[in-house]
Every structure is written in C-alpha cells, then in structure tokens.
Task: structure prediction
Amino acid sequence: MSRISSHARGRARVFGRAGRVLLAWCALTVTAAAPADEAGVRVPPFERVQLANGTVLLLMERHDVPLIAFQALIRGGAMVDPEDRSGMASLLAAMLEKGAGERDAFGFADAVAAVGGSIQARARTESLVVSGSFLARDQALMVELLADMLQRPLLERDQFEALRARHIDFIRAAKESSLGSLAAVYGARALFGSHGYGHRVIGSEVGLAAIAHE
Result:
C-alpha cells in the first residue's frame, strides 16, 4: 500500500480547499434527455443543496434505474496553466486517477473495477471534471473514492513522470501522423493568442517537459 508523501498531503489540502470554494456539482442519477415542449426545454426536477464548505450539489433522482451517475466540476482548467508550463491541468487530471487516499494506482483501479463502476478525470479549458457511475448498492464506495480523488490524491512521483512522458509522446505522435487532430488546438491559439482560452488543454512538448513534480 503506497504511503502519501508530506508534499502530496500538502498539495491535496490545497486542491481540497480549491474544491470547497469553487463551484462543483454532482448529479446522483442517470438522466435521460428531457423532451422539449412549446415553452422550450423542460429541465427535470432537481434539488439544490449547498454544503457548509461551499460545495453545491444538484441532485436529480430517478428510481427506475439502479445506477448513480455523477459529475463534479472544479473551476480552473487549462486557462489557468502557467504560460511556460502548458498542459499542467491535463496532467493533474490524469494524476487524480493514479491513486488516492490509502489506495495506490493499482488499488484504486481495482476498487472501481471490482464493482463494475467507472470514474474518470479530465481537464477542460475552464474546469477539471471528475465523472463516473456506480450501482446504487455501491454508493458508499463511490463517495469514498470520489472524496479521496478530490481531496487526497497521492500525486506520486513515478506516476507523474510516466504520465508526463506519455503526454509528450502523444503530442509527438500526433504531429508525425495526423496534424488534423491538432487543428483545433492550434486554431484556438491563433484565435485567442496569449489569453487563457488560447491555452492548449493537452499542453505542448516544451511546456510539459518544464513541469516539475513539486
């Protein structure tokens, strides 16, 4: 079982504080598209709950499907990446899946797979997103894993170095095989320039290489 380094604990606390003061929401259900009527789009009934730490929950219940689906949004994302370290948010999102709480990367993945659940983290331009689904009977485990991922990620050095190398290799491979897959990336840069919206979510080879574990 992997131990959490003192630095990782500190980074997890910082990340946890950010999550508390910024907008996050979980939709604890599997929802279908609401039919449109003459008045426009009809939003399914939901309950809004704000926790003492500032987190906002939007709950939409359906009891005809024995699943709980969730999505947590944390404001940030690629637009706040340092200019010389593009790809930091994307790398952090990938790191969230590589161990949290008392579980190392393999233990975390096994806990999810053992109950047939799913949980993923990814970066967007304006947010980090953690989403997934579990059977309703496994809701206690789901909440435990989600809380660990958001508040107690391990952020281990060996996982960091492996993921950083993988992201760099992906960019190099895309440049060598299919530049079309990077068209949107370079288009946003051309359109928005140095503004945060011009930051590449995936990052760059130079920017990723400049990101240190610390």
User: Anything to note?
Assistant: The mean pLDDT is 84.
